[in-house]
Amino acid sequence: MILPVQEMERRLIQAGASRLCLAVLERFRNEFPECGEVGLVRAPGRVNIIGEHTDYNGLPVMPMAIDREIVFAFAPVESVEVEVVALDKAYEKVHFVVSGDIPKFPTGHWGNYIKAAAQAIWNWAATRRPDKLPIRGVKGCVGGDIPPGSGLSSSSALVVASALVLGRELDIDRASLAELLAKGERYVGTEGGGMDQAVCLMARAGSALKIEFFPLRTNPVPLPPECAVVVANSTVTANKTGAARVAFNTRVAECRLGLELLKSVGREKNPRVAEATLLKDFMALEPNWQQVLNLLPDEPMTVEQISAFVGQSEDNLRRRCLTMRDGSLLPDPEGGFKPKKRCLHVLTEAQRVEQAAEAAERGDSELLGRLMNESHFSCAHNYEISCPELDRLVDLLREYGALGARLTGAGFGGCAVAIVKHEIAPQLLDAVWSEYYQRFLPTRNLEIPSQQNQVLFVTKPMSAAGEFFGG
Fold it and tell me: What is the pLDDT of residue 242?
C-alpha cells in the first residue's frame, strides 16, 4: 500500500513497528523529500534447520524465516530509473536503468542484488505480460538487521524485497516468483538453488518449512514446542563474491561430476539412471544408490580421470559440468575434485531432512537434535564447508545444553543453528557468549562483538515477505 509519508509513519508507530522500519522511512524521507508518498516492504532472513547444499541438487531442505529482515521503503516513479540508498551510509547509492539486460556493477557491489531482481522481473514481464512493460522504476531506501555474510540469507532477502517492489503491478504468484528469483539471483555469480527465495516468500509464522523442488512444493513443519531455536554468528564472514564463491561453485560442479560417475556405474544394471539430470533423479531411479555410491573412487579426481571413467571427452565434461551461468569455466581445484564425498553428503543429507521433518512433527526433539549433529559432521567432513570457528561454536552449543547444533547456510563461515530446551536457553546464551565470543575469538584474531544480541540470539519462525498494511 502506497501512503502519504506522514501517514505511513503514523501507522508504523501505532503498529509498534521496529526501530529499523522507522529508521529506513526517515532516511527515505531525508534523501527524497520530493516524494510525498511511500510504500514499505519487508523480507525476512532465514535459518536452515537442516538440509545443506541439497536444494540445487533437487533435494529437500527445512529452513524457517527469522525475526531479522530487510526493509525497503520506496516511491514509484514514471521513468525506468532505479535510485536506491542504503540506511548504512557506508554503502554507495545505487542508480541504474531497468531492462532485460542490465550491466553489472563491479563484483561484490551490493546493488547487484537489486539489479538481479530488476532484470528477472523485466524478463518475466517480457514473456508473460508484455503489456506491463516498461517496468517502472523507484526511488527508495534499504536497511536491514541481517548480518551480511552470516549465512542467514541477507542477499536473497534483498533480492526478494526488490522484486516485490519492482514487480508490484505484475501479480506473480509466490511459488512462481520464488522459482524466478532462484534463477535470477545467479546474476551475481553464485550457482545456488531455490531454498532462500522459497522460504522468504512462502514461510509460515510458527513453523519451519519443508521445501521440495522441481516442482516447488512446501509443507509447514511445527517444531517441538519445548524447544527454542538459537542462532550464533561465528563472525567469520563468508563473502559470496570472493574466494567463498569459487568454493561454493566448485561444490555445485562436484555434484554434477558425481552424478556422471554414478550414472556410469549404475546404468549397467539399471539403464534408467541414464535419464537422471540431478542427484534427486538418481536417488529416485536407483533404490540401491548407496551401493552404487560405494563403487566410486574414494580419492580426489582430475577431469582427465573422470573423463576416462565415464567415457566422455574432457571438453564435453567441462562444458556440461564446469560451465558457470556466465559462460565461464570453473577452474580445477588444487588437489582435484572430490565427487564421491560431495555426493555422499548430499544424498545422506536428503535422508536426514525427511527424518527430521517426521521427528519435528512427532515432537521428537532428541532425534531432531541428533540429525542436526550428524548433518554438521557431514558438512564438515564430506562437504568440507566448515571452519575452525564454526566447529568450535557448534561444540560449545552442544556442551552447554543444545540438543543439536550445526552450521547453517552455504558455510565457509557464517552462523550455527541449535535447538535447545526453553528453560536452559538463557544459561546457554550466557555461557556461549563468555566462552566463544569473549575468550575464543581473540585467539583467532577476531574482534569481540559489542552487543550480544547482534550475534547470539533466540529466534522464532516468522511469516513470509510482504508489503506493510496490505498489498
Answer: 64
- The residue count of the chain comes to 471
Query: Cα(160)–Cα(70) distance, rounded to whole angstroms?
Result: 9
pLDDT of residue 189: 78
CA distance 469 to 449: 35
Residue 240 pLDDT class (50, 70, 90 cuts): low
Q: Is 402 left (phi over 0), alpha (psi -120 to 50) or beta?
A: beta
Contact 52, 79 (CB under 8 A): no
Written as one letter, the residue type at 164 is L
Backbone angles phi, psi at 71, to 5 degrees: -120, 135
- Residues 355-382, mean pLDDT to the nearest whole number: 98
Q: Is 196 a catalytic residue?
A: yes
- The active-site residue, picked from 196, 332, 364, 395, is 196
Determine if the pTM surpasses 0.90: yes
CA–CA distances in Å: residue 334 to residues 302, 331, 343: 10, 9, 19
Q: Where do the domains of the chain lie, and which CATH numbers do they carry?
A: 3-50+65-202 (3.30.230.10), 231-240+364-459 (3.30.70.890), 243-341 (1.20.1440.340)
